[in-house]
Amino acid sequence: MRVVSGKVLNDVNEPLGFAKISSKSPKGNALTANDGFFSIQLKDTVSATLTISIYGYQTQEVVVGPGDQNLTLVMKPEFSDKKEITVIGYGEAKPLPAQHRKLMEKTLKK
Fold first, then answer.
1. Does 2 or 85 have the greater pLDDT score?
2. Closest residue by Cα to residue 71 from 88, 50, 92
3. What top-level class would CATH report for the domain 2-74?
4. I need a surface site. Which of 31, 46, 103, 110 has the fewest CB within 10 A?
């Protein structure tokens, strides 16, 4: 086995944290850290296809050869005509203390 590492960036060279890196053979997954860096184990002698995905960007596939050890992957934004997203929360709503409610009312009135 060998370790392939690298970083995932957006289209303006900023690191992308929490991008998913996956390989089918051998099966494995990794997530990028906040600074965009990752490492994943692959077989020594064969090429592997890595799939990189993160919300808001096009999923990409990259072929990694036996000699590749350090990668820089640049993700392309995924443009869509979505004008709304739905956020669903689970849990119990609790009333805010009076001082928080007054502060929120003042902020909203501005």
1. 2
2. 50
3. mainly beta
4. 110
